[in-house]
Amino acid sequence: MNIAHLIKMANQIGSFFGTMPNRQQAVNDLASHIKRFWEPRMRRALLQYIEEEGGAQLSDIVLEAVKTHTLV
Protein backbone atom coordinates (compact mmCIF):
# COMPACT_ATOMS: atom_id res chain seq x y z
CA MET A 1 0.00 0.00 0.00
CA ASN A 2 1.49 3.33 -1.06
CA ILE A 3 0.97 5.59 1.95
CA ALA A 4 1.99 8.71 0.01
CA HIS A 5 -0.87 8.07 -2.40
CA LEU A 6 -3.33 7.50 0.46
CA ILE A 7 -2.22 10.73 2.13
CA LYS A 8 -2.71 12.63 -1.11
CA MET A 9 -6.18 11.14 -1.63
CA ALA A 10 -7.21 11.79 1.98
CA ASN A 11 -6.08 15.41 1.74
CA GLN A 12 -7.95 15.90 -1.54
CA ILE A 13 -11.11 14.53 0.07
CA GLY A 14 -10.45 16.78 3.05
CA SER A 15 -10.14 19.81 0.77
CA PHE A 16 -13.52 19.05 -0.75
CA PHE A 17 -15.32 18.58 2.55
CA GLY A 18 -13.41 21.47 4.12
CA THR A 19 -15.38 23.90 1.96
CA MET A 20 -18.63 23.02 3.76
CA PRO A 21 -19.88 25.81 6.04
CA ASN A 22 -20.58 23.47 8.98
CA ARG A 23 -17.25 22.08 10.23
CA GLN A 24 -18.76 19.23 12.27
CA GLN A 25 -20.91 18.10 9.35
CA ALA A 26 -17.84 18.24 7.10
CA VAL A 27 -15.85 16.06 9.52
CA ASN A 28 -18.72 13.57 9.76
CA ASP A 29 -19.19 13.44 5.99
CA LEU A 30 -15.47 13.04 5.37
CA ALA A 31 -15.27 10.09 7.76
CA SER A 32 -18.39 8.59 6.21
CA HIS A 33 -16.90 8.93 2.73
CA ILE A 34 -13.71 7.13 3.74
CA LYS A 35 -15.71 4.36 5.43
CA ARG A 36 -17.91 3.85 2.37
CA PHE A 37 -15.42 4.17 -0.47
CA TRP A 38 -12.05 3.06 0.88
CA GLU A 39 -11.42 -0.64 1.23
CA PRO A 40 -10.46 -1.88 4.71
CA ARG A 41 -6.74 -2.28 3.96
CA MET A 42 -6.58 1.36 2.80
CA ARG A 43 -8.24 2.52 6.02
CA ARG A 44 -5.93 0.33 8.12
CA ALA A 45 -2.86 1.72 6.34
CA LEU A 46 -4.01 5.28 7.01
CA LEU A 47 -4.64 4.48 10.68
CA GLN A 48 -1.25 2.77 10.96
CA TYR A 49 0.45 5.81 9.42
CA ILE A 50 -1.22 8.09 11.97
CA GLU A 51 -0.37 5.78 14.86
CA GLU A 52 3.28 5.32 13.85
CA GLU A 53 4.12 8.73 12.41
CA GLY A 54 1.50 11.07 13.85
CA GLY A 55 -0.13 11.98 10.55
CA ALA A 56 1.88 15.17 10.07
CA GLN A 57 1.28 15.19 6.32
CA LEU A 58 -2.50 15.03 6.70
CA SER A 59 -4.67 18.13 6.77
CA ASP A 60 -6.31 19.13 10.05
CA ILE A 61 -9.80 18.12 8.90
CA VAL A 62 -8.63 14.65 7.87
CA LEU A 63 -6.89 14.10 11.21
CA GLU A 64 -9.97 15.28 13.07
CA ALA A 65 -12.22 12.96 11.06
CA VAL A 66 -9.97 9.96 11.61
CA LYS A 67 -9.48 10.63 15.31
CA THR A 68 -13.16 11.22 16.08
CA HIS A 69 -14.66 8.38 14.02
CA THR A 70 -14.09 4.66 13.88
CA LEU A 71 -12.89 3.87 10.35
CA VAL A 72 -12.19 0.15 10.65
Explained architecture:
The protein has 72 residues and is mostly helical. The chain has one domain. The chain has 4 helices and no strands. The protein has helices spanning 3-17, 23-37, 40-53, 60-68. The two termini are 16 Å apart. The model has no long low-confidence stretch (mean pLDDT 96).
Please name the defining characteristics of this protein:
mainly alpha, single chain, 72 residues, globular
Q: Please write the string of helix (H) and strand (E) elements.
A: HHHH
Q: Mind summarizing the main beta sheet? A: none
- Please give the number of β-strands: 0
Briefly note the structural class of the backbone. Answer: mainly alpha
General shape: globular
Radius of gyration: 11 Å
User: Number of helical segments?
Assistant: 4
| Strand-residue proportion | under 5%
The first-to-last residue Cα distance is: 16 Å
What is the total domain count? 1
Helix content: over 70%
**What is the mean pLDDT?**
96
Low-confidence stretches: none
What's this entry about, in short?
With 72 residues, this protein is mainly alpha-helical.
Topology:
Layout: H1 3-17, H2 23-37, H3 40-53, H4 60-68
